[in-house]
């Protein structure tokens, strides 16, 4: 287990989790803001992206009240990304997440998840900043992140190809 905060638990991804990832990443409601409805994942794609890649991403399962409900990942920003974003030498982490079980949306769990991950990264990984780049149109997520003390830093025009259109994103950061 990576950490626990009350009824929320975050742990490293296990092989058995690939079935739920496949379910979540083929649900159009989840894909509307994560990856895109034009790119549903099948079992092989989940295997390739989440299990076969040799990267330095901390890939984690999110549980709430003992139920697996979502996914979160964290990674240290490389020098190129830091430069692109206008940072210099600080210890900066990025995070990405989604709640795959839609019955758990709009219940404050995303806020608990993001704030708990920020606490973990600042205390355990000594992160100076934590950043994300949500699409500008993802108003619900941005409100959640602002509740967790993230601030908009700059607009990233046409940053992400999503459903055939390059979407504007916000670079947002938590700075301790």
TrEMBL record:
UniProt keyword Transferase, yes or no: yes
Domain of life: Bacteria
Domain N-acetyltransferase: 8-172
GO biological process annotation, one example: response to antibiotic
GO MF entry, a single one: N-acyltransferase activity
Pfam families the UniProt entry points to: Acetyltransf_8
Record key words, sorted: Antibiotic resistance, Transferase
Stated name of the protein: GNAT family N-acetyltransferase
Native species: Oceanobacillus piezotolerans
The organism's taxonomic lineage, starting at the top: Bacteria, Bacillati, Bacillota, Bacilli, Bacillales
């Amino acid at each position: 287990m990576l950490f626990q905060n009350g009824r929320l638990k975050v742990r490293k991804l296990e092989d058995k989790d690939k079935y739920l990832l496949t379910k979540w990443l083929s649900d159009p409601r989840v894909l509307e803001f994560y990856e895109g409805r034009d790119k549903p994942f099948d079992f092989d794609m989940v295997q390739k992206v989440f299990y076969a890649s040799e990267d330095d991403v901390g890939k984690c399962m999110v549980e709430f009240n003992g139920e697996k409900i979502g996914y979160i990942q964290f990674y240290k920003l490389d020098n190129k990304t830091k430069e692109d974003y206008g940072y210099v030498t600080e210890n900066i982490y990025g995070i990405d997440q989604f709640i795959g079980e839609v019955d758990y949306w709009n219940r404050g769990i995303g806020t608990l998840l993001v704030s708990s991950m920020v606490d973990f990264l600042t205390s355990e990984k000594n992160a100076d900043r934590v950043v994300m780049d949500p699409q500008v149109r993802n108003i619900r997520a941005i409100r959640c992140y602002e509740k967790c003390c993230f601030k908009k830093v700059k607009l990233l025009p046409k940053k992400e190809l999503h459903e055939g259109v390059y979407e504007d994103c916000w670079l947002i950061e938590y700075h301790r």
